[in-house]
Amino acid sequence: MKETSMNSGTSAISFTSVTKSYEQNGASFEVLQGITGEVKQGDFVMVLGPSGSGKSTLLSICNLMKTPDEGEVYIHGKEVRDWNISELRRTVGLAFQSAPVIDGTVRDNLSLAEKLHQKQLYTPEELARLTGLSDELLDRSARDLSGGQRQKLSLARTLSNPSSILLLDEITSALDPVSALEIEELIIRLHQEKKLTVMWVTHNIEQAKRVADTIWFMADGRVLETAESGVFFTDPKHEAAREFLKGGTR
Ligand code: ADP
Ligand code: MG
């Protein structure tokens, strides 16, 4: 079981009235309809909500993979558009289901930060150890890894930067249950040992029950409900959340 996280009370991520629209078939579609909320340093938040509710968009505006239309997003108190973009992306790590790897060996993948920024926090050996990848894999082609190993590699690459915030978008969705549990344990350990702030989108309700401290429930581009995990799962306040938990609208 995970220990309750230490909460310093300082803001890691803060959203104020954030909106974002996409053009779809010539019409404008508002995917985020005014998001306001705060994730404190050291928090472990899981974001739940039906497909299309804006979860991925919400994560991707935190490191400017996408740009908000209106409103502000503050990372450690500084608005995303005021950050140097490469500093922002080194601070806010974003990992996806697809766990992209570069051509070459596992070691090449784990030396990328050194190559790009001439600095990295850990050696490839240390990164492998940190994420539970065996040393023997270092000289293998990254393309030959299993899904679970690729996901560990992708997380290890994120950790080679001084990330203090980890954004995870459905990272275990393509994995078998055993690999998914290993990744869960890894994230919990990193959260505790490295004092990382975690914001994790999942569609796996059992996973959210196992690991979340706090749940953000999204529907139609809004955060409908923010609650302590135990409270959310036993007593969701909104009908949409109750429907979601029954499995009606995943
Ligand atoms: P979720 O992660 O909750 O499924 P998303 O944030 O991915 O939701 O997207 C919400 C909606 O926005 C989806 O219905 C999708 O069709 C639309 N959308 C996402 N990205 C784009 C894009 N680049 N261009 C147009 N529409 C998009
Ligand atoms: Mg998504």
TrEMBL record:
Keywords: ATP-binding, Nucleotide-binding, Transport. Gene3D superfamilies: P-loop containing nucleotide triphosphate hydrolases. Residues 13-245 form the ABC transporter domain. One of its GO terms (molecular function) is ATP binding. CDD domains: ABC_PstB_phosphate_transporter (cd03260). It comes from the Bacteria. It comes from Bacillus atrophaeus (strain 1942). InterPro entries: AAA+_ATPase, ABC_transporter-like_ATP-bd, ABC_transporter-like_CS, P-loop_NTPase, PstB-like. This is Phosphate ABC transporter ATP-binding protein.
